[in-house]
Amino acid sequence: MAELKLNAVEKTYGNGFKAVHGIDLHVAEGEFMVLVGPSGCAKSTTLRMIAGLETITGGEVRIGDQVVNDLVPGKRGIAMVFQNYALYPHMKVRQNLSFGLRLKRKPKEQIERSTAEVSGVLEIEELLDRLPKQLSGGQAQRVAVGRALIKQPEVFLFDEPLSNLDAKLRASMRVRITDLHKRLRNEGRPATVVYVTHDQVEAMTMGDRICVMKDGHIMQVADPTTLYDRPANAFVAGFIGMPEMNLVPAVLSGEYGAQTLTLDGQTLTVGPGLAPRLSHGPGPVTLGVRPQHLDLVVADSPDALTGTITNLEFMGHEVNLHAKVGDAVFVCVVPSDQFDRNLQRGDRVGLKPRVEKLHVFDAETGENFSLA
């Protein structure tokens, strides 16, 4: 396996549209890196440039010690798993798995040994003599992963491989893929992985680190805990987390140590939980607070925002309470066993933020000024 480096990589199409804007990314040997972002953010384009399926128009792609800009995909030492599996319909699973080795004219004994090993790792031994049309979606996806694994590439590339599966099967395959990655690492065969998804649950549960992208730019690269607790900007804060972070306009007033946040006529004291981290002067800001960091209290309570319930979503183990505070709507997550079942739409409630968990973003740039 090898490390992967993107240095100032750009992609501009013939019509002048710039899809990727000089991005830098380092994926360490054996690391599981996830590229995540909304549709159109260029995460798949970036993956295809790594694979050699898209030409780059600036910068360099380096796998190990080699710049691979001008190499065809077959010479880059990569293996790719696609969204649609891309299995050969006329070949049985055994032949699909071994196709890459047979193409390289590897010895028959090696092919048989590798096929047996990979099918055992992925628990698909009983499928070896089936055609792709006889497989379920999950089985076909395991075969596609096996076909990549058997090649022992420098870098594995996954392009939204689970998007065609139902929710239960996606959850199962997430576990299988991450367990496989850990197993290879423990066996001294670390697999360098770049995995593209639009699903933040996949990103947060699978990645060693996550690269959040927007409009061809990298917004932040960090481990899942850091992205959740210390988002670099309002975009990352709103994209990572379910339900998404509450982001509302506010005004920061006062001097350091005695600052307040005002929104729609209601005021919160910054207090010692946030003040030491705050590096923004008075003026318009965007206040950020996760639904899990709002406590439901009585309306008009001190240091709480008072609003009117607009919707209640019963999720089983918790309730998502939507409340309108002025022109803004906040979501508050309440554990089911702590929720007052007498509450209903139209009732007034208080939402008390855990001040130490508040985030303050620049109103124009979106930069997080509460990370100091």
UniProtKB/TrEMBL annotation:
This is Carbohydrate ABC transporter ATP-binding protein (CUT1 family). One of its GO terms (molecular function) is ABC-type maltose transporter activity. One of its GO terms (cellular component) is maltose transport complex. Keywords: ATP-binding, Nucleotide-binding, Transport. Belongs to the ABC transporter superfamily. Residues 4-240 form the ABC transporter domain. PANTHER family: MALTODEXTRIN IMPORT ATP-BINDING PROTEIN MSMX, MALTOSE_MALTODEXTRIN IMPORT ATP-BINDING PROTEIN MALK. Pfam families: ABC_tran, TOBE_2. It comes from the Bacteria.
